[in-house]
Predict the 3D structure of the following.
Amino acid sequence: MNKNLPLSNIVVLDLTNVLSGPFATQILSDLGAEIIKVEKPNGDDSRKFGPFIKKRSSYFISLNRGKKSIVVDFNNEEDKKIFKKLLAISDVIIDNFKPGTLEKYGFSSSYLKKNFPLLIQTKISGFGETGPLKENPAYDMIVQAMGGIMSITGKDKNETYRVGSSIGDIVAGLYAVIGVLTQIIFRNQSKKGSRLDLSMLDCQVAILENAIARYSVEKKIPCPLGTDHPSITPFGAFKTLDGTLAIAIGNNKMFKDFCYSIKNEELHKKKKYENNAKRNKNLSDLRRDIEYQMKKKKTDYWCKVFVKNKIPHSKINNVKDVIKNKQVENRKMILDYNFNAIKNLKISGNPLKFSFMNINDNVKKSPDLNENKSEILKKIK
């Protein structure tokens, strides 16, 4: 463990499983925290998720680098004694069990507060610890559906799409990190522990952006718009001679520059396109006029033109394209994982680029199940 990292004096007892919690503790690990991953006897469920490389789950590897694994069976009294000793050396406990799980084994919030008053408790669950759904199980798909994100995702209201990345879990993981760091600051100030009750559903509602405000004002239920934006136009994907190009025009000056770039200088002068509100209202006509010009040339041609004229744009990259992207490469966002005879497994890096540390310079090993038991037991004797 690097003693110079910001969280190098923090020990996190990580009881989380699959994605939301492991995503959070992966970030905390990158920031220097010691992560003791407490696993059930058959391990984190994601150890069984493919694809596999050298009999190890690439899914699990990508979310658990730098952690230490120990198996704790809460049905075993000796293991529960070990868990109590782990609590005594930990600063943070984080879990994403269904509410009531730890209580069933005698480790309620009140027990933890009484016996470990400085302990920071972070609880991730589908619906939180209050409300009529508090005991219901949840997965990413469920909170995307219930939280409204799916209702504004896709081509139109007649087809339903899940967001391609598991943002129900990932956003909860990000908020969990914010919560843990806030609790650490609070403890430093108050000399007291605290508890965070974090709901995946709440997190989905929080990222609805301006959809709630728009509904409140317009009394119209927001619906899917494909790649278009509900308030800014042109802002979406447009066809070229050989493909599709994403374009984002944020103001009138930029729209004028864009029109000159596509060799239709008169377009921005038309009354129905003279400001964003009118462009938004006349999107169908504007799309037809833009694509009439853009279909005359190939995507690469327009990319060169837009780079020259500083027009925000991008090809629609697939994952292979992203891995090879020069900007992504420059930012060290694709890392090579080389452990346990695994060579050059591509995994995503950490986007935090601090002036005082380079997180992505040191790729850490993901643990095998119970790999670190002996090391961890030595710490608590």
